[in-house]
Structures are given as C-alpha cells and as structure tokens.
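User: I'm writing a short report section on ligand binding and want a predicted complex to refer to. Could you take this sequence and magnesium ion and write out the structure as tokens? A short remark afterwards would be nice.
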Amino acid sequence: MRLVLLGPPGAGKGTQSSRLAAELKIVHLSSGDILRAERKAQTKLGRLAQTYMDKGVLVPDDVILRMMIGRITAPEARAGFVLDGFPRTIPQAEGLDARLAEVNQPVEKVIDIVVDDTVVTRRLTGRWTCPTDGNVYHEAFSPAKRPGKCDACGTALVRRKDDEPAVVSQRLATYHAETRPLIDYYRSRGVLVPIDGNAEIDEVYGRILATCRGRG
Ligand code: AP5
Ligand code: MG
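Assistant: Sure. The structure tokens for the complex follow:
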C-alpha cells in the first residue's frame, strides 16, 4: 500500500499514520519528524530547516525532495509507505510522482483528512509530544497514561515550539496557500479520498482503514 495523508496542521496526520503503519506493516515517513530529528542533531539540514519551521513556513522544495525521495525508494519502503506531511506543494508532488513513475510504484491513495481551522487550533494548543520517539498526545483528547510522560518510553513530554498561537496561524495560512492546491492535483489523478476528520481519533482511524481496505 502506497499512501499519502493530506490535511492541515493538527488534522491528525501523525496520529493516524503511525497506527496505519503498524497495522498495515508499512513504513511511516513524516517529513516534519525527520526535520525535527535533524534539528535535534544540529546537522546542516536541521539548522537550515529550523529557521523556516519556527516561523511556520515551508522549507524549500529542493531540500525536502532530496531528503524524502531516497527514503521513499529505499528497500525498507518496498512493502509500502504512508507519507505524512509530504508532499506539501505542487512541485513536491510532481517530483514525487516523477520518481515513483520511474520505479513503477505510483501513489495509490491520497487520504485528505478534512478538519475545520477552529478544531485544529484546539488540537494543536493541547498537543504534547515525546522528544524521544515522536509519540503524540493531547491533554484532553488523547492523554498519556501517566501525566506528562510518554506511554512507550517514559520520557517527559514537550510542547512543539511551532504550536504557539502566532505560529499556528501562520502554518494554517501556509497550508491554505501552498498545500490545499494538492487536493485538486490528486483529485484530477483519481486517487483522492476525502475523509471527515471532525470526529474522535478511533472513528477517523476506522474510516481511513476501511478506505485502505477498499471498503470506504
Ligand atoms: P509537520 O510536523 O508536518 O506539521 P504539520 O503539517 O503542521 O502537522 P502537525 O504535525 O502539526 O499535525 P498532524 O496532522 O500530524 O496532527 P497530530 O496527529 O499531531 O511540519 C512542521 C514544519 O516542518 C512545517 O511547518 C514546515 O516548516 C516543515 N515541513 C514539514 N514537511 C515539509 C514539507 N513537505 N515541505 C516543506 N516544509 C515542511 O494531531 C494534533 C493533535 O490533535 C495531537 O495532540 C493529537 O493527539 C490530537 N488529535 C489528532 N486527531 C484527533 C482527533 N480526531 N480528535 C481529537 N484530537 C485529535
Ligand atoms: Mg504531524
């Protein structure tokens, strides 16, 4: 299964992708998580990305394409992948499609998680993330079993810097200007599946899984 999850910041791309990847035994590739790991390691890429991420704007397409394409075509991803946060612009989608066409492994489904801006803002301001394994929680909607600690590894949870209200507004504006055009791009290619994301995590997951299994 070769999937892309589309949707605004806070739509639940990360939450749903990790569950899908575990269930379908495919690789979860999150461009945001990769960039945050590079930042943490203070690599050249990480330092470059930081300046864009902290403002809530996109890292340049050529940098992102270089970072993602190798991982998507790596042997570990041969059984399938779910892409989370990539592609995010038309040039990124064109770069991805061109490379996947070369290996005859096109994207099969693009799941667009549709959620209102007011809902995503509430989700982002209550989000807590594990800095060790990237697990995502919400203080009201998906709380950790022990407050402030990751269920999987016990690390103290942190808030993402770009979840401050001013940066969230910029991320939403960036999404509407640069990423929403991908909805028409993938619809015209016959692979778009819109899913109503204004529901509880398990319900949204059930809808996505049904779609992946051809029942949606
Ligand atoms: P990235 O990390 O991709 O951030 P994003 O797209 O803004 O999305 P988020 O990770 O904030 O949200 P999500 O949809 O994963 O939601 P989540 O599951 O966490 O990108 C960060 C930055 O990196 C960008 O701004 C850019 O600078 C750069 N970047 C990354 N990719 C790039 C690219 N391709 N090109 C250029 N630049 C790039 O859920 C959110 C919260 O809601 C959680 O607390 C969760 O528990 C909760 N929740 C989830 N689902 C539900 C539900 N159904 N009901 C209630 N709560 C829910
Ligand atoms: Mg995410």
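A remark for your report: DSSP finds nine helices and seven strands in the chain. The beta strands are 2-6, 27-30, 81-84, 109-114, 127-129, 136-138, 192-196.
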